[in-house]
């Protein structure tokens, strides 16, 4: 507590500053402990008075934008809408819906449930892998080109996965029946 008051004493005229030797104002804050005139009580009273008068000790203020670099690979002005908190809510709805869609689709295989499973699982997979790529393949570390290519690769992966699942649904026995077929193969071995 006493060492913290030395910083305040340098920048603001403290009521106890007249009782301090001049050597304390030159940065030798460790010798504050030797002088009982500057006690923690007087410093506490000073802080209480300064808070009542709305006088804040002057400390250098660091802006958050100066301390943290921009991690996004897209500029905010290129974004279609600024509020991305709604996307987080949609992600949660899709995750919760998968808990009901997958068991229903496996119990009652039909084209509607196969389509719902395909689209919902690809959306869930895409949002998860995209978040991982954006978090870990940063432009600061890998450069803009590699980070953008990684995001484009996630989009390509999602498109190919959706096309493959839709092909399985429309041109084969269906998604749920394919999963049941895999389970039967494992049981026969």
Architecture overview:
The protein is 65% helix and 0% strand. The chain starts with a helix and ends with a helix. It has helices at 2-11, 40-52, 64-67, 85-107, 111-136, 139-142, 144-171, 175-188. It is elongated and about 50 Å long. α4 (85-107) packs antiparallel against α5 (111-136) and α5 (111-136) runs antiparallel to α7. It contains eight helices and no strands. The protein has 189 residues and is an all-alpha fold.
Concise description?
GO terms for molecular function: heme binding; metal ion binding; ubiquinone binding. The chain is an all-alpha fold.
Contiguous runs where pLDDT drops below 50 for at least 5 residues = 27-41, 70-81
- SS summary, helix count: 8
Helix vs. strand class: mainly alpha
The secondary-structure element order is HHHHHHHH
N- to C-terminal separation? 73 Å
Largest sheet: none
The residue-averaged pLDDT reads 74
Helical amount among residues, as a percent range? Answer: 55-70%
Choose one word for the global shape.
Answer: elongated
The radius of gyration is: 32 Å
Query: How many runs of DSSP E, i.e. beta strands?
Result: 0
- What is the beta-strand fraction? under 5%
């Amino acid at each position: 507590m006493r060492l913290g008051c030395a910083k305040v004493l340098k920048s603001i005229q403290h009521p106890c500053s007249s009782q301090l030797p001049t050597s304390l104002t030159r940065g030798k804050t460790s010798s504050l402990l030797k002088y009982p005139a500057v006690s923690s009580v007087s410093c506490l009273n000073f802080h209480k008075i300064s808070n009542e008068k709305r006088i804040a000790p002057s400390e250098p203020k660091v802006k958050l934008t100066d301390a943290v670099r921009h991690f996004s690979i897209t500029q905010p002005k290129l974004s279609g809408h600024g509020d991305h908190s709604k996307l987080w809510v949609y992600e949660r709805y899709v995750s919760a819906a998968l808990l009901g869609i997958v068991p229903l689709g496996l119990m009652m295989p039909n084209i509607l449930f196969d389509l719902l499973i395909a689209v919902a699982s690809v959306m869930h997979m895409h949002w998860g892998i995209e978040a991982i790529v954006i978090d870990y393949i940063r432009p600061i570390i890998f450069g803009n080109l590699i980070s953008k290519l990684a995001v484009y690769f996630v989009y390509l992966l999602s498109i190919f996965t959706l096309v493959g699942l839709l092909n399985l649904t429309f041109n084969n026995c269906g998604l749920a029946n394919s999963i049941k077929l895999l389970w039967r193969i494992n049981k026969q071995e």
